[in-house]
């Protein structure tokens, strides 16, 4: 920052770096934060840079339409002037920043001609009183893909779901105490072991966080471990386990858990989570594909790496990174991992495959391909195993789409299938 730079410019510069990382380099927003916000000392400035970038990603198609409606000559998608305009307009039209502050803090990021252009386009949009639509539009490619896979109704529900940040869900270490925790935290429970808090709840300050009575986990993300039921001392292998939401559920449900993941930093978070909650698991760093499948377990859970389009409400960057090609590559990786995971299952044991994706190529198609293998049969998930409002579809698999539990604040997109060996 130079001495003459107006206050707030560094925050917008960090927001611009974040958007560049997501949109031009395909990096997840969370992973880009440390670098992009390195120059910002204050936590609230870092949080604001993230909020600006997040809101731009939530409303990108509409911001671009607004920019295009006020420029004589179309700006390239990756032009710095377009990035600056997105940042200025999202503040003025969605984040409540006064127009003069929104533009004054982005102009220093531009030089010469583009600076005049940004000033001119912003001024024209403001004079025309141009607004962003609510609910926001999804990126065209995503709308097209989801309409084809799930029909227009799902696209409409997804647009409604991205309009506002979702509530905060907690999973409890002791499901028997659900009513007690719901009351103590001022939340509502939608299933045993679950409490839903209003959006924006400052979780680290709430009772029960420090002593590990609960952890943050969307209700949809709690399904894969729920459908494994009570462990009663039996063994479970949690593959791709970090940061450990499902490991903790399994340990709390009485499973003797082995948790593996290939990422050292993510396993560190898993260990911290176990320590905070006082739950136990044997934790190992391992690549699923490089391991020999032994010993064998009563249950194996594969929460596979995926496009993560199911978590678009909290992480709108996923919508801009999940290309058809990326999805196809991830689906192939999941199919290979599932075949590998099968080797760890005891005869008569259970295998659960899950992804937080809204792409049938990753959920249904991978499960169908696997079901064709002889030694496993489909093990349909029964209604009584699921929270009210979530249903199992064809072949007893669970597909959570936007619109599920809409009246209660919705749920992340998820797919869960269960198989039995032999
Ligand atoms: C969807 S996340 C898992 C979330 C976790 N199950 C939970 O509930 O908190 C996918 C995980 O897969 C891990 N991963 C990706 N490829 C892997 C591989 N080949 N072997 C092991 N872990 C892998 C990633 O490090 C990431 O932590």
Structural class of the secondary structure composition? Answer: alpha/beta
Strand content: 5-15%
Tell me which oligomeric state these chains represent: single chain
Shape: globular
- Ligand roster: S-adenosylmethionine
Low-confidence segments, ≥5 residues, pLDDT <50?
none
Cα-atom radius of gyration: 23 Å
CATH superfamily label of the largest domain: Vaccinia Virus protein VP39
What is the string of SSEs from the N terminus onward?
A: HHHHHHHHHEHEEHEHEHEEHHEHEEE
Q: Count the DSSP helices.
A: 16
* N- and C-termini, Cα separation: 65 Å
CATH top level of the largest domain is Alpha Beta
CATH architecture of the largest domain: 3-Layer(aba) Sandwich
Give the averaged pLDDT, no decimals. 95
Within the CATH hierarchy, at the fold level, what is the topology of the largest domain? Rossmann fold
- Helix fraction by DSSP (H/I, runs of at least 4): 40-55%
Largest sheet: 8 strands, mixed
Whole-number total of structural domains: 2
- Can you count the beta strands? 11
Pfam family, one: Methyltr_RsmB-F
Family: Belongs to the class I-like SAM-binding methyltransferase superfamily. RsmB/NOP family.
GO molecular function: RNA binding; RNA methyltransferase activity
Keywords: Methyltransferase, RNA-binding, S-adenosyl-L-methionine, Transferase
